[in-house]
Amino acid sequence: MLGLLLTVSGAGAAEPPVLTLPQLTAMALEYSPEVKASQSQVTVAKEQKAEVQGYYYPQIDTLVNSGLAPNARLPQVQGNQIVYPDPKNRIHGFNIFGRLDFKAVQPLYTFGKISYREDAAGKNVNIKKAEVDNKRGEVIFNVAQAYYGLVLAEQGKGAVKEARSYLSDTRSRINRLLQIKSTSVAEADLYRLAAYEGALEKFAAETDEGAKVAYQALKAFIGYGPGQEFTVSSELPDPKAAPAGLDYYIKTSLELRPEFTMLKEGLVARDLLVKAAKADLYPDFFLAVVGAISGAPGRRTLQDPYVQDYFNEHWVGPVLGMKWHWDFGITSAKIRQAQAELQGLQHQNRAALMGIPVEVAKEFGKLQENYKATVGLEKAYVNARRWLITAFSNFDMGIGKMEDIFQAFERYGAFRGDYLMTLYQYNVSVTKLDKATGAFRRTMPGETPKTSQAQ
C-alpha cells in the first residue's frame, strides 16, 4: 500500500507545471542574456560617472628612479677662492643613487570641466537604463508571440480533433446509406470526403510543427533545457475593446517609450558636453603639495640654498597653481564636434516625435481591426457550427442533402480557422501596442515610470 502511494505521489510530482504568460515573461526577463548584457552597460555607465567624480579629489603621482651618479666632495676654501675638487666636467668615480618625486594635486576651480561631465555621465546612466527597458520590451514581445503561437497551435489541435469527428460521422452515414442503395448519397461523396480528410491532415501537420517550434522557442527564452517541461493554457484570451482612444496611447508613448527617455536624457547630456568642451578653453586652478627625496652614498650634502643637487636632496612644500592649455584649433574643433552631435540628436528627437505617434496609430488601428474581426468571426463560426449540426439533423430526418452537410462543414472549418488566427493576431496586437507605447514598463519587475491611467 505504501509503495502504491509513493508511486502515485511520484507520478503526480512528474506532471509538468502549467505556466501562464506573466510567469513565462518573468522567467524570460530573469534569464535573458540580452537583458543581462544591457544591464552590464548600466554598470559601465555608473562606473564612468564614478570616474568623473574622482576628479574632484586629490590625485597623487609618485616617480621612483635609481641609477649611477658621479661622486662629488664638498667645495673647499683656498685663500679667497672656493675650489671644487670634483667639478662637473670631470668624472671622479661613480656610485648609485635613489630618488623619489611626489606631488598631490587638489583641483580648486575648473570652470565646470568636471561638473558638466559628471552631470552628463549621470544622464548616460539613465540612457543605459532606458536601453535595458527597451531590450526587456523586445523579450516581452518575443515571449508573448511564441506563447500565443503555442496556444493557437493547441487550439488548432482541438479544432482538428473536432473536424475529424464530424468527418468520421459523415463517412459512417455515407457508408451505411450506400450499403442500402440509398439515392440520397453517391460514391462521389466518399471521394469528396477523402479530399476534406487530406486537407485536414495537412492542417494537422502544420499545427503539430507550429506547436513544436513555439514550444522550443519558449524553452529557449526561459532557459529550460532537455527534460525540463511545462504546459500552457489551452485557449487564447478573449478579445476586449480598447479601454481608451488613440490620443491616450500617443500620450502614453511620449511618457513611457524608452526611446523618448533615451532622447530626452541624451539631449541634456549632449548639451552638457558642449558646455564642458567650452570650459576646456579656460584654465584650471589647483592646490598642490610637491616634494622629493634623493640620496647617493658618494656625494655629500651641500647646504647652499641656491644650488640644487638632484642626486642628494630632500624637500617638500605646498603651492598654488594654474594650468592653462593652449592649442591652435584642437579645442575649438572639439567644441564644434560636440555641437554637431547635439544638433544631430535634436534632429533624431524631431524624427521620433513624428514617427513614433504614426507607429502607435498603426498598431492601434491594427488592434481595432483585429478586435472587430474577431467579434465578427466568432459570430460567423458559432452560427456555421449550428448550421452544420442542423444539416446533420435534417439529413438524418430525410429532409436534407449531403451537399448541405459539405457546404456547412466547409464554412464552419473556414470560419473557425479564420477566427482562431484573428484571435491570435488580436492578442499579438495587444502586445505590439504595449511595446509601441512603452506601456509594458508599467508591469515590469522593479521601478516603473508613472503615468496617467486610462479611464
Description:
By secondary structure, the protein is α+β, with helices and mostly antiparallel strands. The protein has nine helices and six strands. The chain has helices at residues 2-13, 21-31, 33-53, 113-179, 187-222, 246-256, 258-279, 330-396, 402-437, and strands spanning 59-70, 76-78, 81-83, 94-109, 284-295, 313-323. Helix 4 runs antiparallel to helix 5 and helix 4 (113-179) packs antiparallel against helix 9 (402-437). The longest helix is centred in the N-terminal third of the chain and has 67 residues, at 113-179.
Which structural class matches the secondary elements?
alpha+beta
Total individual domains? 2
How much of the polypeptide forms β-strand, as a percent range?
Answer: 5-15%
CATH level-four homologous superfamily name of the largest domain: Outer membrane efflux proteins (OEP)
Give a summary of the structure in a few sentences.
The chain is an alpha+beta fold and 455 residues long. It has nine helices and six strands. The protein has helices spanning 2-13, 21-31, 33-53, 113-179, 187-222, 246-256, 258-279, 330-396, 402-437; strands spanning 59-70, 76-78, 81-83, 94-109, 284-295, 313-323.
